[in-house]
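Ticket closed. Logging final result for NADH dehydrogenase 1.
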Amino acid sequence: MYLFDFLLIIISMLILVICILVGVAFLTLLERKV
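Final structure:
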């Protein structure tokens, strides 16, 4: 179970990082349009 919890935490962190990168890229694109 410990291994599963560890994998779950890693996956959650990856999703969080991806969401942040997508958000930053989206904001930069919006700023370029304006």
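DSSP finds one helix and no strands in the chain. No further action required.
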